[in-house]
Amino acid sequence: MSKFTFLNSPKKWMYLSVSGIFLIIFILGLFHLDNKIRRGQQAQGRSILRSLIKNQDQQFRKYDKFTPKLENLYQGTSKGIGTYKFKMTVESDQVFFEAIPIIWRRVSYSGALFKIKQDQSFIMVGGICKSPRSSMTAPTPILPPFSNFYQVRCPLEAELVELIKFSK
């Protein structure tokens, strides 16, 4: 009896084929689960960034100035611990946000809120830009809208995923 008879048996090859198919299905299932988790975490990061922009608008309406403390804006939202790290830069009539993923294979976001003069008053315009692919740096700089066109301008290759216009 040859030592290769076991490898040549039809049952062995059928077993290896079925095992290979199950292994492929298992690996595809893991990729699907990873993509579902990644999309959920990216949606959470975008949602927190949207809340920060809206809360900064409320701070301005209440105190007539932007708050320089990011902690003041987390009211009503989670801090995104474990998924994204948030940064904020405040200037006199504009605020810039960055949402940097802590976990690799996630897109980054940048957000902005601009105070735009309109006749005798002003209007607040915000937006969120998304990096074109997984990145550990946010797409910057976000530029203010052109006059009479109330939409923030994202950097090259970044995508505007949300436009936020606040009423007076």
Structure overview:
The protein is α+β, with helices and mostly antiparallel strands. The chain has two helices and five strands; from the N terminus they run ααβββββ. The chain has helices spanning 5-8, 10-63; strands at residues 84-91, 94-101, 109-118, 121-130, 159-166. Strands 1-2-3-4-5 form a five-stranded antiparallel beta sheet, with helices on one face. The longest helix is centred in the N-terminal third of the chain and has 54 residues, at 10-63. The model has no long low-confidence stretch (mean pLDDT 85).
Helix/strand-derived category reads: alpha+beta
Helical fraction equals 25-40%
Low-confidence stretches: none
Describe the strand arrangement of the main beta sheet, using strand numbers.
1-2-3-4-5
Quantity of strands, as a count: 5
Let me know the average pLDDT.
85
Figure out the total of helices: 2
Please outline the major beta sheet.
Answer: 5 strands, antiparallel
Termini gap:
90 Å
What is the C-alpha radius of gyration, as a whole number of Å?
Answer: 25 Å
Topology as a string of helices (H) and strands (E): HHEEEEE
> Any idea what the shape is?
elongated
Strand content: 25-35%
